[in-house]
Amino acid sequence: MGLTIDDLTVRLGKRKVLDGVSAELRSGRVTALLGPNGAGKSSLLRAILALIPADGGCATLDGTDITELDPRIRARRLGYLPQSAELAWNIPARSVVELGRAPHRSPFSGMTAADHDAVELAMALTDTTTFADRLTGELSGGERARVLLARVLAGEPDWLLADEPLSSLDPAHQVDMLERLHGFAQGGRGVIVVLHDLGHAARIADDVLLLKEGRLLAAGAAETVLQPELLEQAYGIGFERVGSSLIPRGRHAQ
Ligand SMILES: Nc1ncnc2c1ncn2[C@@H]1O[C@H](COP(=O)(O)OP(=O)(O)OP(=O)(O)O)[C@@H](O)[C@H]1O
User: Fold this and answer.
1) Is residue 130 assigned to a domain?
2) What is the ipTM of this complex?
3) How does pLDDT run across 70-90, given as a tens digit for each residue?
4) Residue 15 beta carbon below 6 angstroms from any ligand 1 atom
5) How many domains is the chain partitioned into structurally?
6) Has residue 100 been placed in a domain?
């Protein structure tokens, strides 16, 4: 059981952006999704979430094809933090976080005590309580990113799929975000996170999926995938170990 990707193939326009990707993802662990620009990382998250159709294969959650789940159940079980921190509405931050409870509420019903508790907890975890009443248009990019994380956490999903969640955060909030994701997984839920920084991946990931040109180049425990030879194949540059870090050597390094 868990989240299984089975021979998933996706075309966007004329491009095959995912080509026969298969993997078993486990709850209680952080899976980092790595690979160069254009490798298909965002497409893989979006295909798992049934936001883009598969041309072949499928993703299943506890044995059920995710595309066959009722959309409300799907939204409850799979939380998505997309790459862009844009927000369509200029509303108070707390109202954005409250939207994360939508899959738990019936239309036109008010917020229950449980809804309020989940919102307050999510805001506390993301350090957003202090600007809960400010309009999102008045927040910095990093503050907006944290509000969006709070919105996903408020939905109490079983799985969190986060696409480059660190990109607009300062170092302190990057560390906070990594700890939040780690804590989320330690609570028994599943995390799939797209990362570019290999140091962050080494710090947080239990497992790694390494994509290149829409194909899975390697998958497994982080220490087995985060190896200079595999990373070189994926990114086309050399890597060397310095202490516990993997440092890029450049395209023409010997
Ligand atoms: N709507 C689209 N139509 C056609 N091709 C697309 C579309 N969206 C993405 N692609 C292509 O699909 C491939 C995979 O894109 P994707 O965004 O999944 O990669 P990524 O690994 O997340 O990249 P990055 O690290 O740059 O965010 C790229 O070659 C991209 O140009």
Assistant:
1) no
2) 0.96
3) 999 999 999 999 987 677 789
4) yes
5) 1
6) no
